[in-house]
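User: I'm preparing a small set of examples for a lab meeting where we compare how different chains pack in three dimensions. I only have the primary sequence for this one, and I'd like the structure in token form so I can line it up with the others. Please keep the answer compact; I'll paste it straight into my notes.
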Amino acid sequence: MYFSLTMKSIIFIFLFLTLSVFSQDRIKTEFISKSPFKAEKIIGIDNFKTVSFITNATLFKKKNSQTLNYSNIQLGDITSANTFNPLKVNVFYKAFNTVIILDNRLSEIFKIDFNTISPYKNITHVSTGSDNALWVYNQDSQQLELFDYKTLKTRANSMPIQSEVLDITSNYNACWILTKENLLKYNYFGSLLLKTKNQGFKKIKEHNGNLILQKDNALFYLNKNSTEFQPISIPNLLINQFLVTNEILYIYDDEILYQYQLKTK
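Assistant: Understood. Below is the structure token output for the 265-residue chain.
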């Protein structure tokens, strides 16, 4: 009898905690369109339907029939790229610990070689910051840094993060880090604003201060004023990538690019 009551109590507590973290209010979506697309990785889609993507170690920017491209043979494969600020696109080459800043024509305007900067920084993740700054995660110090690439100085840094970093996203005012254990949010002073347990998420994207998170083959929405993760209603699709622009959710399965209108209000 004691064992039965104990197990019932444990189950009740587990269900209560689960419900407190995952809201039952689902974010509705409306199908817009789908179209064939081929790329190794889609980086961004802006309000004018300009698509930035990576294929064969080259960053492309395509709108209608016009296509721009950037590649750097010496640096090889692109680890990540960020088009949040279209006038200062950052392209990260992890193997060479280097970031290239491009203008809106994909012309090189800055090169940041962290191997030559003192103190040395071993960078694993990069995202866009305000002005001439990047959010970078320094694996050696285990700290998130807001790094000014013109002065080559760190404006702010976080306390050490004691968990493996899975993904990073940002806007001009804040940076979110998803680790194996937690979801963390920092402001541009390096102060921790939010810490909540990672409930199995692997990827995150920022959207007007809110977050879209991927868990297995499902997406969740985290409002900037809430700590509850709301499931997003979408068909059963293979989600290799997802992006959000102006309330439009893009889902890419390596062959088809789907568009859905998010009903967040």
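A couple of notes for your slides: The longest strand covers residues 28-36. Residues 1-20 have pLDDT under 50 and may be disordered.

User: Perfect, thanks.
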